[in-house]
Amino acid sequence: MRQSQKPKFYLFDTGITRYLNQTVDLELREGSSEFGKLFEQFIICECFRLNEYYEKNFKFYYLRTKDGAEIDLIVQKLGKKRILIEIKSKTEVNSEDLRHLKKLGADIQHKERWIICNEKLPRLTEDGIKILPWQEALAELFK
User: Fold this and answer.
1) What are phi and psi of 70, to 5 degrees?
2) Total-model pTM
3) Of 87, 71, 79, nearest in space to 119 by CA
């Protein structure tokens, strides 16, 4: 696995992103790719905001391979397991949504694997991946 070295940049506000992309006047539809991108941006910005607010000193990373496989967010808590997070705006996560966490997570030791999404209830897959509604995920991450 070859890792990409490109940084990611997230604007602090999804409305600013829509304005700059000239999509602010278009209806934002749940389930669209734009909704998914903005949901990811929202979750990551909330993680940065809550990290500062609660003075947690977590470190945030992401992983993208040369072939395009990606883990959206890696959270490193001092002295704790890394949390590998895939962010999905879906209301129903399926096995295809787990593939990057399974594939890339296999090469990372001392980790938990989460999917943060819009499902109503938390659950655990057979592979030990936590699927969490976004509100519960943020509450658990920053408790």
Assistant:
1) -145, 145
2) 0.87
3) 87
Give the residue, 93 or 35, on which the prediction is more confident.
93
- Measuring CA to CA, how many Å separate 54 from each of 57, 58, 138, 142? 9, 10, 12, 8
50 token code pair: 């809550």
Domains and CATH numbers, the chain: 14-141 (3.40.1350)
Look at residue 4 in the predicted model and tell me its pLDDT.
44
Angle between helices 33-53 and 134-141 (to 10 degrees): 20
Q: Which residue has the tokens 């959270």?
A: 75
CA dihedral sign, ordered 86, 117, 137, 94: negative
At 30-82, the pLDDT tens digits run 888 887 888 998 999 999 999 999 999 999 998 888 888 889 999 999 889 99
